[in-house]
Design brief:
The structure holds two protein chains of two kinds. Chain A is an alpha+beta fold. Chain A is about 45% helix and about 20% strand. Chain A is built from 15 helices and eleven strands. In chain A, a hairpin with a 5-residue loop joins strand 9 and strand 10. In chain A, helix 10 packs antiparallel against helix 11 and helix 12 runs antiparallel to helix 14. Chain A is globular, with a radius of gyration of 23 Å. Chain A starts with a strand and ends with a strand. Chain B is of the alpha+beta class. In chain B, the strands form two sheets. Chain B has a six-stranded mixed sheet with strand order 1-2-6-3-5-4, sandwiched between helices. In chain B, strands 7-11-8-10-9 form a five-stranded mixed sheet, sandwiched between helices. In chain B, a hairpin with a 2-residue loop joins strand 9 and strand 10. The longest helix of chain B is centred in the N-terminal third of the chain and has 18 residues. Chain B starts with about 25 loop residues before the first strand and ends with a strand. At the A-B interface, helix 2, strand 5, helix 3, helix 4 and helix 10 of A face helix 2, strand 5, helix 4, helix 10 and strand 9 of B.
């Protein structure tokens, strides 16, 4: 359990804090309520491009990275379909520098044609490196194309094509900034060797004067409804092997079923001796890798079950075996009791290890506050322990049916 | 808001209190390192074996010996072994390195002794069942095939095979080596090298002195010989003198790999090289990152770093860029290398690198598991346990002229092996 402090500034910025005297640093983590799902369908990849632009300098800061480096700190960021997250970690002595920098780019980013042009180039390079030059690099394009027909979840964070990035104008990015980069649309978490009083004082000094028009992202998206029919996509990509991916959409993070499905995925595929490994990889030698996971998204989740095939193995056969293994596992029900307890125990130990890092704590705190339940960070392990095995199996059985699976059959690009 | 124009003052991390990295030994002579952190609820224990890929007669033997260490023992199947570990909520990872290999246990503090006993018992009597090796061939082949599809794999491989010719440092395994892996070889490696009684032990997390003593009493019973890394001489190497090009048809990206070996150097030189590397490409503010990425947009990622190479190190620059930009990126990189050897860096640039380094150096001592890797580094490089206490002083007293001299000695473009892989 960690002791959490929380307050809200007059401008709407939510702040959470945790004092950790054992470290020499302070982490400032800022989560903005904007992700790929907030983009225009002709301007995909914007949230991610914008993440890059946030390092280009602001009204009073010529070079963001230079200032952090001179303060002996480090920083980075990531974007996903639902939010964009920035962090700065600095020596405790230089914490005010972090407040200055983070607040200044919230206040007024220096977006100019030159910085836009450079970052467009960088992001396009990233697109090519991730999508064209890595095995299964286009996987998420295919997954989202298959699962969604109208919703703004149908493109990946990197963007549908790099032409969208190329075509971005200064006005486009300025509008994006004005719409989403507001204190009332953000959460700031501060973790490390800084007292609550000092944290508050620095927040009042650097962040509270930032007043911007606009409202918090209401996160309203087209509700497409989960597929009720089987969908299939044949894809070719950079890959030495065939592969089969089975995907189902699932409940959102806040839904209790989401945690049950996360645990289910760990039970089915989270061990070196999991059912998936034992049957598909070791006994039947159909695959050289077989895994599953549940992505607990804020808006909705996703369960992926996949196998990378050994040479000469038929994709349809593997698809059928994946479904059979899944169903058989669900039908085992309460006989999975020991495995269920193991999974709960591993999850508990995993959380203890996670919470050691101040950066991870800062990111988790920001996310839980964004969800609306900052104390959730302290409740995670209790929730896992209080799950009921039969309930977990029932939920999985309800969501993961053969009839409404989305399937990608992957072949190596010729 | 004029107050925003006043940049907050920053303090330099010139020194801080560093606890000495202690390496102790039991009464029998087994080396260990212990770092206790109260009230965190978890522990991490690592056994460091003085063996690795440099001991193998054929590629992948050492990896197989460690990857399959818990794939079955004389008394239990893999499933039985792993299910128990899972039930405890613990995890065990086994990894072969070049000179030293590790078995690392992560668990709640309450079950440390049982877990160690369990792992040691079954790893010591590892049976390497044929069916597990058979599966391993498929798994390992699949992973290698996927890596072999990337330009990054080939640019590094081609450069190292050429440069390190004749040394094991330049040996890369192929799919055929995986196919011919056999049980006798793996068992022979295990019998010869994988002994808990010769390992160095790292105990970290919530392990108080009493627990530490109990653990060491347990491992003491296995003791055979004091841990000693066999550090072979890497040799001396000459670059081929030409840019190697490995063609991957239709690859949109080209990977660039530029490298050389850095032999034995004293600590003072090492610290200067650290700073030189930072300025060159060791952090976001470096010349490579700023020029090739931020100014010219040629690449998403480029950087330089040191990797261990038999107690010494490989210095490399690597990056990936569009095929159309590859030649230009290479020219720009070489220009930057030459510039560092021709012109003294400014005080400002060097100061920035020092500030960045000192901040990350200090934060590297945070956390309950920080000292293990630092301890291993000392042993690998045969450095004294006082090394870290002297680091910041070396860093802060390095002058621009020192960096110039270091660059002139080590950063000569002609001394580096260069390879490009992609559609070129």
């Amino acid at each position: 359990m960690i002791e959490i402090n929380r307050f809200v500034l007059k401008n709407g910025l939510r702040v959470v804090h945790q004092y950790d005297k054992s470290v020499s640093t302070v982490v400032l983590n800022t989560l903005y309520n904007v992700g790929a799902r907030d983009e225009d369908e002709n301007r995909t990849g914007f949230a991610h491009l914008f993440e890059h632009l946030m390092f280009a300098g602001s009204a009073n800061v010529e070079s963001f990275d230079k200032e952090i480096e001179e303060a002996g700190g480090q920083n980075n960021a990531f974007t996903n379909n639902e939010y964009t997250n920035y962090y700065i970690s600095v020596p405790q002595e230089n914490v005010e520098t972090a407040f200055w920098l983070e607040s200044d780019r919230m206040l007024a980013l220096n977006i100019n044609p030159e910085s836009l042009s450079v970052q467009q180039g960088v992001v396009i390079e990233e697109f090519k490196q991730r999508c064209f030059n890595a095995p299964f690099g286009m996987l998420w394009h295919h997954v989202r194309e298959l699962l969604y027909k109208k919703s703004s979840y149908r493109w990946p964070t990197i963007g549908l094509s790099f032409e969208h990035i190329e075509n971005a104008t200064l006005e486009d990015v300025q509008s994006f900034y004005n719409a989403f980069y507001l204190p009332q649309n953000a959460v700031l978490s501060v973790v490390g060797n800084i007292s609550f009083e000092d944290c508050k004082s620095l927040c009042f000094k650097w962040f509270e004067p930032i007043v911007k028009e606009g409202s918090q992202n209401k996160n309203v998206y087209f509700d497409e409804g989960f597929p009720v029919e089987r969908r299939e996509l044949l894809a070719e990509d950079l890959s030495p092997n065939d592969a089969v991916f089975l995907i189902w959409r699932g409940p959102s993070f806040k839904d209790e079923d989401s945690l049950a499905l996360d645990v289910f995925a760990d039970m089915l595929g989270g061990s070196d001796v999991s059912e998936l490994q034992e049957i598909l990889v070791k006994q039947e030698q159909l695959c050289n890798a077989a895994e599953c996971f549940y992505l607990r998204g804020l808006g909705e989740g996703m369960f992926m079950l996949y196998g990378i095939l050994n040479p000469g193995v038929d994709k349809t056969h593997v698809e059928n075996r994946l479904i059979e293994v899944l169903n058989s596992f669900i039908n085992k029900g309460l006989s999975n009791k020991t495995l269920f307890e193991s999974t709960q125990n591993k999850a508990y130990t995993g959380l203890l290890f996670e919470m050691i890092s101040p950066l991870t704590r800062a990111q988790k705190l920001a996310l839980w506050e964004h969800i609306g339940d900052v104390n959730g960070i302290n409740e995670e392990s209790k929730k896992i322990q209080s799950l009921n095995l039969q309930h977990v199996m029932d939920v999985a059985g309800r969501y993961f049916k053969k009839e409404n699976v989305s399937v990608i059959h992957y072949s190596p690009k010729q | 808001m004029s107050f925003r124009q006043n940049k907050p003052s920053t303090k330099i991390i010139e020194s801080f209190d560093i606890q000495e990295i202690r390496i102790d030994s039991t009464s029998k002579g087994q080396l260990y390192h212990h770092q206790h952190t109260p009230e965190i609820g978890v522990a991490k224990i690592s056994f460091w074996f003085p063996c690795g890929t440099h001991n193998q007669d054929q590629p992948f033997i050492a990896s197989a010996a460690f990857d399959l260490l818990l794939a079955g023992s004389s008394s239990m199947s893999e499933k039985e072994i792993i299910e128990k570990i899972d039930y405890w909520g613990a995890s065990v990872s086994c990894e072969a390195g070049s000179l030293g290999s590790t078995v690392t246990l992560r668990c709640k503090k309450d079950i440390v002794i049982e877990l160690i006993q369990w792992v040691v018992t079954h790893a010591s009597t590892a049976s390497y069942p044929e069916d597990q090796i058979d599966n391993y061939r498929f798994i390992k082949s699949g992973g290698l095939e996927r890596r072999m599809q990337t330009p990054g794999y080939w640019s590094e491989r081609v450069a190292k095979e050429k440069y390190y010719k004749g040394s094991k440092l330049g040996v890369f395994g192929d799919l055929s080596d995986i196919e011919t892996l056999n049980r006798d070889q793996i068992i022979a490696f295990h019998m010869k090298h994988v002994h808990f009684g010769k390992a160095m032990i790292f105990l970290s997390g919530e392990i108080d002195n009493k627990s530490k003593d109990n653990i060491l009493a347990l491992t003491d019973s296995l003791y055979t010989k004091t841990f000693q890394l066999d550090i072979p001489s890497a040799g001396s190497f000459t670059p081929s003198g030409s840019v190697s090009k490995y063609n991957i048809k239709n690859s949109s990206q080209v990977s660039m790999y530029i490298m050389k070996h850095i032999g034995a150097i004293d600590e003072s030189t090492q610290h200067k090289l650290t700073l030189l590397n930072l300025v060159l490409g060791g952090y976001f503010g470096s010349r490579l990152m700023q020029e090739l990425r931020e100014n010219q947009g040629l690449t998403y990622g480029i950087g330089s770093s040191f990797r261990p190479a038999y107690g010494e190190r490989t210095w490399s620059i690597s990056g990936e860029m569009n095929s159309t930009n590859a030649e230009r990126a290479l020219e720009e990189t070489q220009k930057i290398m030459r510039a560092l050897s021709d012109t003294v860096v400014s005080n400002e640039e060097l100061e920035k690198a020092k500030r960045y380094y000192s901040g990350s150096f200090r934060s590297g001592f945070d956390g309950p598991f920080s000292s293990m890797n630092k301890c291993q580094y000392l042993v690998m490089r045969q450095l004294s346990t006082q090394h870290y206490r002297e680091t910041l002083n070396h860093i802060w007293t390095t002058q621009p002229k020192d960096l110039l001299a270091t660059a002139q000695e080590f950063l000569n473009v002609k001394d580096f092996e260069i390879s490009l892989a992609g559609d070129i």
